[in-house]
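INFO  loader      accepted 1 record
INFO  loader      residues=143
INFO  predictor   begin
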Amino acid sequence: MNARDTRADAVDAIQRELTAFARRARGRAAELHPELSLVAYSILDLILERGGCQATDLAEQFLLDKSTVSRQIGALERLGYLEREVDPGNRRNHILHATAAGRVVAKEAERRRREAFTARFADWTDADVEAMASSLIRYNRGD
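INFO  predictor   done
INFO  writer      dumping tokens
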């Protein structure tokens, strides 16, 4: 096998493994809250991370269409996890903020995710975990 084939095989393996990771993540989201999808949790997390944002920001960040974002926001609002505030800079827009209940559910989800990752990496060396973190950061930056 030549270097080109080896690289292609490695890229195929990465794709397969990232797909498996995404499937597990979707399944874990249902365990954390049966009414929330992985997308809804991701939206709530980003809103918390940014201290609030507009729906258009969410659509851009997650490369989703506006109707998908709107449905997820609606679900989060119905559950009492999000609220809208008129944007003082442009009164036609709304800024989305997590409610106290949204912060609680997001914190619990983060705790459970951290436990799951900690258990998954229990047999890994610190250097391996750091290498994985660096590689994922680099991948997500697009370097």
